[in-house]
Amino acid sequence: xxxxxxxxxxxxxxxxxxxxxxxxxxxxxxxxxxxxxxxxxxxxxxxxxxxxxxxxxxxxxxxxxxxxxxxxxxxxxxxxxxxxxxxxxxxxxxxxxxxxxxxxxxxxxxxxxxxxxxxxxxxxxxxxxxxxxxxxxxxxxxxxxxxxxxxxxxxxxxxxxxxxxxxxxxxxxxxxxxxxxxxxxxxxxxxxxxxxxxxxxxxxxxxxxxxxxxxxxxxxxxxxxxxxxxxxxxxxxxxxxxxxxxxxxxxxxxxxxxxxxxxxxxxxxxxxxxxxxxxxxxxxxxxxxxxxxxxxxxxxxxxxxxxxxxxxxxxxxxxxxxxxxxxxxxxxxxxxxxxxxxxxxxxxxxxxxxxxxxxxxxxxxxxxxxxxxxxxxxxxxxxxxxxxxxxxxxxxxxxxxxxxxxxxxxxxxxxxxxxxxxxxxxxxxxx
Length: 431
Prior knowledge:
Elements (H helix, E strand, L loop, with lengths): L17 H7 L13 E3 L6 E4 L5 H6 L14 E5 L5 H4 L1 H4 L6 E5 L1 H8 L15 E5 L6 E3 L4 E3 L45 H21 L5 H7 L5 H28 L3 H15 L6 H12 L4 H6 L5 H16 L2 H7 L6 H15 L9 H24 L3 H28 L9
Parallel strand pairs: 2-3, 3-4, 4-5
Antiparallel strand pairs: 1-2, 6-7
Helix pairs in contact: 6-16, 8-9, 8-10, 8-12, 9-10, 12-16, 13-15, 13-16, 14-15
């Protein structure tokens, strides 16, 4: 805890109440307190700052874990804003000395703080000085590689005083909509008028999906861990790229099956975009084309990769099982299986950083697929999650949705198992 006082701190400069008077005279029963803020870490190395109070400089100076570890450095990986109130944002202006800032906030909080705010310009003196990452209720955002994630929970609230006339900072707490949800009745959380019991059930369901998916996601697989640690040989990277391409070819097939299950034109229009983005509108476009550029960047023959000449039997079996399962599932189960997208954007961001650091021989232009999926994955995850929450309205259906998500994670894990089983020894890069 970096501070626990309300706006203005304790003592407040213009307050003469008994508590403020006691704090000024050094009464041991009332200790001075800085404005509310906290820092959180899962590994003691990378820290998430919860709000940036006007007292942030003093707060950082008094916490050794948050001190720089080099001449120009900070252990603060990101700053999450719970509102646009000055008590929560003014400290950002004090952190303007040039170290890049990653700020997590909802769209409304960001707009309230940045729109028509001349002081905000001090955080935009250089390109990339401040990056904003969008928070969407129900779509957790991972922070660096530190094992932390931020999950936004709408709480309502009027706009800050300096943004008079702006909308509320958060979506209404009752019957709220997930950003990105569209079409019919597929967007509401607690879709029965926002009653408390429905909201609690929906929140518990989202948490269960997140928990079960996260702990089984393939970023924990030993092969994946070695990849991000820079311990794969060039041949190992090429093997992964060749085999993973076959999985990429199954994605539009799966999406076409999902599309055919829906009678809702709005849903079909939205989901069709996924097929177009992967297959492209013409030859040489789309996600598959970008993956072939990756293949060329790591030294594979793109034509051979496109023919799937060297796909391992175990990889082929795992990938083919995915559209087979989607064919048999209900629409909501099939959509739920795609919720691995909730974890993919942050994985892609970590992958880009890891490849740039550990595999500099790979042409950076070849990483375009990963870059494209960071934003598209967040959008797709928000739409799919909104649909599943709105349509999985009974415990039985929710159980089936969780099982579908677990089955999808097992397929991704099995793909990497097949790679390890085929040739485990050469995959380790010589130290």
